[in-house]
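Per your request, structure below.
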């Protein structure tokens, strides 16, 4: 099931399928390691949903909701 990162619930994990957007913002996400194939775990969300804290490639990263809306992920099933 495909979802954008801002739609994830705390504790969900997904694999990046696509990063939309263009220009500086897309390049910034790539530079932070948000690339197709990377696994992202949603750790925390602020009370109003902005910002989000995720774990990707072994480190914690904080993203704005507007950035998270650009990341399309395949939800991984919990076992």
């Amino acid at each position: 099931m495909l979802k954008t990162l801002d739609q994830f619930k705390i504790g969900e994990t997904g694999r990046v399928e696509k990063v939309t957007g263009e220009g500086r913002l897309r390049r910034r996400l790539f530079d932070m390691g948000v690339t197709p194939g990377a696994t992202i775990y949603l750790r925390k969300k602020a009370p109003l949903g902005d910002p989000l804290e995720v774990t990707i490639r072994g480190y914690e990263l904080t993203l704005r909701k507007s950035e998270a809306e650009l990341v399309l992920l395949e939800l991984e099933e919990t076992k």
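DSSP finds two helices and six strands in the chain.

Regards,
D.
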